[in-house]
């Protein structure tokens, strides 16, 4: 169903203007090869939401100009530029308007190459800003398809935050695991000295080449994670995340990984999680009275081992704190992303590369 158009906002010069925002994430809880509803093998992942940081986009549409006349700032955001062009074509078809050019400006505070979903955040914010300039709010499934065309594989940042198993190379949800993750406190860090990971250089294996044993192992972890979400079992989630991290470590080979798991055991954490295509990692704690000294001790130990600390954050939301599911629609519904969030990070100018240093604590 095509969402109804609403009047677009206008810039000071009277041109139709739209804004959009998309969050980032903190790597994955689970990643592997899974079976879809038809029994076909798919690469899939479950991301760990990261509150706060993300990308904000502003798109000023210039009716009457060629559709290819798109100016993007910063100029190196090629994926966001492709996404904006695809969104212009899609929105013009829906509204009956002529495709036209415009200017896309991106600001954000997600370092690139660390596994925080920076490129997908750029892409989704761009798509939402273009749609907003046409007076549209696109359904998450539509946003996912556009994001996939723009960058080949995408993270599920267009969804409503509910934990789901997402086929990143196909842009579709394989399973919604439940309303919300169990309560966790995550002590984030950056492995490999914070050196960005070139995700395109990582070995890529088609899901069809996965062994039967690997597929069975992933199915077992998927079932355990589903149970952890259904019962709010943080310890079980930590076991799943740690098992998935060990699988990812076979490819990434972070030299600090054993130190990270040792620290998790030493300070009573429920496990660790790892960005399977980046350098961020997290030590996962179940919230408990009097846990602050353990968190501080964990941070001191990370520093003593030369592992830069990242954000410390929680999966607890206002809704989950009161026992309710997070509001919003699934990938098949309509997303009301609303106006762009204000004050998100420092503006990134055309000559300012995206930061590659670790995120500050939140």
Tell me how many strands there are.
11
Largest sheet, in brief, is: 5 strands, mixed
Give the N-terminus to C-terminus distance in angstroms.
39 Å
How much helical structure, as a percent, in the residues? 25-40%
Mean pLDDT: 86
Order of helices and strands: EEEEHEHHEEEHHHEEHEH
What strand line-up does the widest sheet have? 1-2-3-5-4
- Radius of gyration from CA coordinates: 20 Å
Strand-residue fraction? Answer: 15-25%
Q: How would you classify the helix and strand content by structural class?
A: alpha+beta
Query: Which shape, going by the Cα principal axes?
Result: globular
User: Helix segment count?
Assistant: 8
Uncertain runs are: 324-362
Report on this model:
It contains eight helices and eleven strands. It has 362 residues and is of the alpha+beta class. The protein is globular and about 65 Å long. Mean pLDDT is 86; it is low at 324-362.
